[in-house]
Design goal:
179 residues; alpha/beta; Rossmann fold; six-stranded mixed sheet; 7 helices; 6 strands; globular
Length: 179
């Protein structure tokens, strides 16, 4: 008689991850590079919100990441829907463009959509476009100040989708913080 073996049930966990920041900082490119595991440059601006899913196998667990890419233009922020989009988020990547310091100063507008339970990693994008050393000290000090005022901000990383520098690392670190 043939014996039927039923595989053990896999635990499926779902994490809602937000990717926030001003328009044009590279949020969509960052997500697509992580999801598709190759450099992906997106020149189209996100309209409202885009949604990506990536599944990771963690032994006997399967982790489904819901990656929410929210448009950064002011007219979308004025629609007052981001509060609802951000509800229930486990973590957030808070992105700014290293070549545009103004996007760093606007991070606090995005922090206001998050609650104290949301784990946050700050991401400086486009590290390949600037001599990062020029602003390193200023940026580090500014983010240290943000972390003092918002203790749920965990760490800061610089990324480049072209060299793939830290792209996977920022997502995996955030996932680890959320679990």
């Amino acid at each position: 008689m043939m014996q039927l073996t039923i595989p053990p049930k896999r635990i499926v966990r779902v994490l809602k991850i937000l990717v926030l920041g001003e328009g044009g900082v590279g949020k969509t490119s960052l997500i697509k590079t992580f999801v598709f595991e190759q450099p992906s440059m997106s020149l189209d601006q996100t309209l409202g919100a885009e949604f990506f899913v990536k599944t990771l196998d963690l032994g006997d667990e399967q982790l489904k990441l819901q990656l929410w890419d929210l448009a950064g233009q002011d007219h979308f922020k004025n629609m007052q829907v981001y509060d609802r989009f951000c509800q229930g988020a486990h973590g957030a990547l808070l992105c700014f463009d290293l070549s545009d310091v103004e996007t760093l100063f606007r991070l606090e507008q995005w922090i206001e959509y998050l609650n104290d339970e949301t784990k946050v990693v700050v991401v400086g994008t486009k590290s390949d476009l600037v001599d990062v050393a020029d602003n390193d000290e200023f940026i580090e000090e500014y983010i240290r100040d943000l972390r003092k005022r918002y203790p749920f901000i965990q760490t800061f990383h610089k990324t480049s989708i072209f060299s793939l520098h830290s792209v996977t690392k920022v997502f995996l670190e955030l996932i680890d913080l959320c679990l």
